Amino acid sequence: MALPLHAQEAKELNLYSARHYQTDEALYGDFTKKTGIKINRIEADDNALAERLKSEGANSPADVILMVDAARLWRAQIDGFFRPIHSKYLESRIPANLRSKTESDGSTWFGFSTRARLVVYNKAKVNPQDVDTYEKLAEPMNKGRVCTRSGAHPYMLSLIGAMIERRGETATEDWAKGMVANMARPPRGGDTDQIKAVASGECGVALTNSYYLVRLLRSTKPEDQAIVSKIGFVWPNQQTTGTHINIAGGGVAKNAPHPQAAIQFLEYLASDSAQEYFANGNNEWPAVKSVKIENEGLKMLGPFKAENVSVAAIGKNQIAAQRLLDRVGYK
Amino acid sequence: MNRIVVPLALLLFLPLFGLAAPFLFSGNEQLTTGTLSHLWNFVLGGYIASTLVLILGVGVGVFILGVGNAWIIASYDFPGKKLFEWALILPLAVPTYVMAYLFVDLLQFSGPIQSTLRDLLGMDSLWFFPDPRSLSGAIWSFSFCLFPYVYLITRTAFLERSGRLIEVSETLGYSPLQGFLKLVLPMARPAIFAGMALALMEVLADFGAVSYFGVQTFATGIFKAWLSFGDRIAAVQLALGLLSFVLLIFFVEQSSRSKLQYASSTRSKPLAKSLHGKKALFAFAFCGATLLCGFLLPAFALLQLLIKQGLTIDIRYLDWLGNSLSVSIITALISVVLAVFFAYSVRMNSRLSWVNQLLGFGYALPGAVLAIGILSFLEIFQLAWWMSASILVLVYAYLVRFLSSSLQSVEAGLARITPSMDDSAALLGLSRGQILKRVHVPLLKRSLITAGLFVFVDVMKELPATLLLRPFNFDTLAVATYQLAADERLAELALPSLTIVLVGLFPVLLLSRVISKS
After folding, report:
1. Which of B115, B141, B228, B467 to mutate to test the interface with A (most CBs of A within 10 A)?
2. Shortest CA distance to B348 belongs to which of B414, B270, B259?
3. Nearest in space to B192 (alpha carbons), one of B383, B415, B384
4. Residue A189 has pLDDT above 80, yes or no
5. Strand (E) or helix (H) holding A83
6. How far apart are CA B448 and CA B461, in angstroms?
7. Buried (b) or exposed (e) across A170-205, using 16+ Cβ within 10 A?
8. Which position has the higher pLDDT, B300 or B63?
9. Using N-to-C axis directions, what is the helix angle for B441-461 and B135-160, rounded to 10°?
């Protein structure tokens, strides 16, 4: 049996990551090249990582924890997984609305990239004015048109948690009822499946995360281009509250055996080269405003007005969101 | 003997104690209350109903496919039999979640079949075309994926039965069908039920494939309680509820064996009857259609995805392969040794039979629930850092989950060794150890290889526990497949999925060699 990892010398970094993007390899390789610090990784979904951290307690070998959903970041903070840190560099680079509140002992987590939840529609079947807000999707005129992935997915729960914050639980429950009544088919599959179903005409309109759409927009495969030719997209709620966005980010683990390397890694994620990677490699919007985007697909989406709801509110409303979905039979 | 058997069995039962830990150790801040009553009020009834329909449907499906093919192969000679004999095991190598991706991809609204049909007929939608993402789609897909459990164990039973059964049935003036129903089926019942129990437990424990089909089962409820509501305790209570389904399956399986000593006293070569004309064609068509749906189509679809990808090989591919192979082989070897030990202990001392029933529970626990149990347990003893340090915890989890499948196989093999053989060997002055070595092992060889094969392939495919418990930088083929699916890159998961399938072929070929030699 090996010694606990704590006893070993630094020059390495233990990363718990819920990011599941193949393109991240380049990011980690680049960090190792720049610093000589080897990265040990465990990738699993946010909840699995949280369970593992809970069980490992004070003996956890984790240095850095990365999550891909605002509510999960908030949850991890509440569960005490993060160690607050002061970093002038991070505080100057990451806008205040994309990181946890800075207390006297520092911030617990930082967002490094964002993604939006937008509306995709079938150009032949649907008029974009009918689907330009989340609210309109639940109105009777869209009966039999709407598709989404399962409501239990974190991306959906965060969207609904934000809506509860904006409109209250009763109005949101009515909205969810309307959505269930309007569904072209029960919720299933991932976001790319929703886009494909819209292109094939099975659905008239669907919700999807922005980077899946951008990936299709940038694809050179003929079958992907055929899909793109049949669909349009809308930024929802531009005249009202703005489009729902979600955050991917992370922080230093509470009992990090290599705290220096951990801070170094987070600062690297906020550097120009890493931020450019988020934009160009994985089609996310970089958190750092000054970073140049060289991504044709992201440029095609253009600028948009984002919803302004606090991460803490989205996090707190998760359970209420799941319960109201169960009540209205939103699978 | 008992001094070892009981502690060892309890060690493998620990995760279930770990599941109970939240009840025993207070101080677990509960975020919510009333998770269970909420689920009960709004969704649980539906989950239970769809779970029941699913296991009934898959039960019928694996029975027809498993027993039908086993009987045809074991009893008749017809063109292509040699190929089908081993090829029908191949679907075992296809993970249920991969089968689900491919099944849906092929048959869904936006898939190739429906699109072509719509173009041909000039229709906007095909109202008559069943939706593959449904309960019935899940039943079809699971049946074709899991019937080899029944096929393998039942065919072994048919092969090892006295070849005279057909002759007996003919002497009695039975038609082949009557003979089959009245003589053969009852004789093979323990084997059939053992195979069906394995298949159904896999269905109960499944989450990836059912969620892809949009079917909400009991496992959905467990995950919802755990992940959406952050309520470990409610998840555990539901997991215990799931175990009641398992108990039901167990009860049926055990009672089918009780009071019946199935052992044929002669060992003669089974006589396969040659088929000609229409009958041969029917046999060929039945086995052929099963093989086509269970393996050839999915494999072809994977190959097509791979070719579309342009055959780029991920640099991490060899790591995935090495990791998968090492844990699968280690676990398979250990589990066969343990299975022999436990099965044999129970044979020696029937008062210990509860031990094997206890061990059977592991298989029916969803991998993620099992992993929570192990996590809780490690937490209590502050040993959780073991996970990061070595694959020990991972192998332990696999043993807890899959030992029962090797145990079933070894027990079914042992059940066919008559008590009188033991008695005669004992009369000849052989010790218990010698009886095992000189009488049982040669007779059991096939069952042992089958047992090892089951575990090897199961571990290759295992996903949820692997995700939760694996050490740093330890991605397996299944994990890679899952990560690619999470990233919605279906085309790229063709390579790791296809590899899981191909690696699963080797033990199958090995097994078929053993079978054709005997």
Report:
1. B228
2. B414
3. B415
4. yes
5. strand A82-83
6. 20
7. eebbbbbbbbbbbbbbbbbbbbbbbbbbbbbbbbbb
8. B63
9. 160
Buried/exposed B385-394: b ≥16 CB within 10 Å, e otherwise? bbbbbebebb
Query: Which one-letter DSSP state was computed for residue B493?
Result: T
Residue A209 DSSP SS3: strand
Q: What six digits make up the tokens of B498?
A: 């296809």
The percent helix, strand, coil of chain A (3-state, each to 5) is: 45, 20, 35
Distance CA B70, CA B161 (A): 13
Residue that has been written with the tokens 């053989």 in this structure:
B421
DSSP at B351: G
Closest C-alpha among A115, A107, A165 to residue A286: A115
| The two three-digit tokens of residue B444, written as one number | 């059991």
Q: Searching chain B, which residue's CA lies closest to the CA of residue A155?
A: B228
pLDDT digits (tens, 9 = 90+) for B54-83: 999 999 999 999 999 998 998 889 999 989
Q: Taking CB atoms and an 8 Å cut-off, how many pairs form between chains A and B? A: 134
Mean pLDDT of B139-150: 95
The mean-pLDDT minimum among A245-259, A312-326, B375-389 falls in B375-389
B472 contact A CB<8A: yes
SS3 B111: coil
* Angle ∠(A259,A263,A266) on CA atoms, nearest 5: 140
Which helix (H) or strand (E) segment holds residue A246: the answer is strand A245-253
Longest dimension (CA), chain B: 81
For chain A, give the mean pLDDT: 93
A230: helix, strand or coil = helix
Give the residue among B485, B426, B403 at the shortest CA–CA distance from B101: B485
Structure tokens that stand for A307 in this block: 């919803």
Taking the model in full, what pTM does it have?
0.88
Helical (H) or strand (E) element with B302: helix B297-309
* CB contacts, 8 Å: B470 with chain A: 42
Residues in chain A: 331
- Cite the beta strand spans of B301-366 per DSSP E: none
* Secondary structure element (H or E) that encloses residue A161, with its range: helix A154-167
Residues in chain B closer than 8 A to A40 (CB atoms):
472-473
Structure tokens at B462: 């295992």
Range A128-156 average pLDDT: 96
Confidence at residue B310, expressed as pLDDT on a 0 to 100 scale: 72
Q: For B472, what's the count of Cα atoms within 13 Å in the CB-facing half-sphere?
A: 19
Residues 245-304 in B contacting A (C-alpha not used; CB under 8 Å): none
DSSP string across B177-227: HHHIIIIIHHHHHHHHHHHHHHHHHHHHH--HHHHHTT---HHHHHHIIII
By C-alpha distance, which of A122, A74, A124, A100 is closest to A232? A122
pLDDT tens digits, B212-249: 888 999 888 888 888 788 787 888 888 878 877 777 88
Centre a 10 Å sphere on the Cβ of residue A80 and count the other Cβ atoms it contains.
11
Which of B 128-167 lie inside 8 A of A, CB atoms? 131, 133
Report DSSP state, residue B133.
S
Cβ pair B389:A56 closer than 8 A: no
Place of tokens 């990551």: A17
**C-alpha of A158 from chain center:** 9
Do the chains contact at A197 and B489, CB–CB below 8 Å? Answer: no
At A295, the pLDDT band (50, 70, 90 cuts) reads very high
Pairing verdict, β A146-147 and A245-253: unpaired
Amino acid identity, residue B341?
A: F
Predicted pLDDT at B268: 52
Structure tokens at B241: 């509820």
Instruction: List B273's β-bridge partners, or say none.
Output: B76
Question: How remote is the C-alpha of A41 from its chain's centroid?
Answer: 20
